[in-house]
């Protein structure tokens, strides 16, 4: 079993600071309730031993809502969810998930995409559709977008669309803003940076260019629930998301991706997420790349 929280996420400064003292203790039964809720909600497994990390991540939210304990907070979250009010459940998931991402992350995928997938896409009749599933703050779909703009003929680029989804409203809001700091954009090859980004009005940030933003549609979607969307997609990127799911959830997800892809469509998973132990109809192409 894996966990969604890494030890490096521990906000040491927060722990030492004052607000930490206000946070109620996280008792074992409360941790178990939280663990079950997170698993039911989005398939993420929290491992035992992460109690203090969970307490530090979620504690501030508990205090802000005025709940006197984690149990009282969970009562509130569950009561609201029963009435189909999911905002607080979303805040809980946001507090406990890790959204680490980067432009051109795992560059071998994008080398393959440019050399093998885009040339094939250049010739189809149907508009190109790509899905970034678990897109976090947008670096992944915008990396795909810039490669499509650079390497597709204008008529094929014109109709191409990228669907970018995530379970977290917080990261989606940041993705839609499409604004990044100087450190984040250093991962973009220098030759592409100027063609991909404008300087923000404040002068110290970078905004993804309008023509790339226009081709990406961001939407909230929980991968372990219903998918109110229709295929087929020509490529699906679902990288560094399944690693946090158990084998059953991964199996179901990979089967559903297979049905969502057009024949010949590619599935990209994170390099630590081989499909080796799952049953599926994909052909292996190279590490973490599969084709239907
Ligand atoms: C580590 S980030 C990976 C981002 C990007 N794909 C990459 O590889 O750089 C994992 C993302 O998966 C999202 N996620 C986790 N569980 C999910 C679920 N059940 N449905 C949809 N997205 C989920 C998280 O909110 C997070 O933004």
Tell me what you see in this structure.
This protein is α/β, with parallel strands linked by helices and 292 residues long. The chain has two domains: 7-96, Chemotaxis receptor methyltransferase CheR, N-terminal domain (Chemotaxis Receptor Methyltransferase Cher, domain 1), CATH 1.10.155; 107-291, Vaccinia Virus protein VP39 (Rossmann fold, 3-Layer(aba) Sandwich), CATH 3.40.50.150. Helix content is 46%, strand content 16%. It is built from 14 helices and ten strands. α4 runs antiparallel to α6 (87-96) and α5 (70-82) packs across α6 (87-96). The longest helix is centred in the N-terminal third of the chain and has 15 residues, at 28-42. The radius of gyration is 20 Å and the shape is globular. The model is unreliable at 1-15 (pLDDT under 50). S-adenosylmethionine binds at residues 42-44, 97-101, 105, 134, 136, 140, 166-168, 171, 222-224, 239-241, 270.
**Lateral arrangement of strands in the main beta sheet:** 6-2-1-7-8-10-9
Secondary structure tally, helices: 14
Structural class call reads: alpha/beta
Largest sheet: 7 strands, mixed
Mean pLDDT, all residues: 91
The helix content, as a percent range, equals 40-55%
Domain count: the total is 2
Outline the low-pLDDT stretches: 1-15
Rounded to an integer, what's the Rg over CA atoms? 20 Å
Q: What is the correct CATH architecture of the largest domain?
A: 3-Layer(aba) Sandwich
What is the strand tally? 10
General shape: globular
CATH superfamily of the largest domain: Vaccinia Virus protein VP39
Give the CA-CA distance, first to last residue.
Answer: 28 Å
Classify the fold: give the CATH topology of the largest domain: Rossmann fold
Small-molecule binders here are: S-adenosylmethionine
């Amino acid at each position: 079993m894996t966990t969604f929280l890494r030890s490096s996420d521990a906000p040491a400064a927060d722990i030492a600071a004052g607000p930490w003292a206000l946070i109620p203790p996280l008792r074992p039964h409360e941790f178990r309730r939280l663990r079950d809720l997170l698993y039911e909600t989005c398939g993420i497994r929290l491992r035992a031993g992460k109690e203090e990390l969970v307490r530090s991540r979620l504690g501030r939210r508990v205090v802000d809502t005025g709940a006197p304990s984690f149990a009282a907070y969970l009562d509130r979250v569950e009561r609201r969810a029963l009435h189909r009010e999911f905002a607080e459940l979303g805040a809980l998931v946001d507090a406990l998930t890790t959204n680490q991402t980067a432009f051109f992350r795992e560059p071998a995928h994008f080398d393959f995409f440019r050399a093998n997938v885009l040339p094939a896409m250049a010739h189809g009749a149907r508009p190109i559709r790509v899905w970034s599933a678990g897109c976090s703050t947008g670096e992944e779909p915008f990396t795909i977008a810039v490669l499509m703009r650079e390497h597709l003929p204008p008529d094929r680029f014109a109709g191409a669309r990228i669907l970018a989804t995530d379970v977290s409203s917080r990261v989606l809001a940041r993705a839609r803003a499409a604004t990044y700091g100087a450190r984040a954009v250093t991962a973009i090859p220098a030759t592409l940076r100027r063609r991909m980004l404008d300087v923000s009005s404040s002068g110290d940030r970078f905004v993804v260019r309008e023509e790339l933003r226009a081709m990406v549609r961001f939407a909230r979607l929980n991968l372990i629930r219903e998918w109110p969307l229709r295929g087929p997609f020509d490529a699906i990127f679902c990288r560094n998301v399944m690693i946090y799911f158990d084998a059953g959830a991964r199996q179901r997800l990979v089967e559903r991706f297979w049905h969502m892809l057009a024949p010949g469509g590619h599935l990209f998973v994170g390099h630590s997420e081989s499909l080796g132990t799952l049953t599926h109809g994909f052909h292996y192409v190279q590490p973490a790349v599969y084709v239907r």
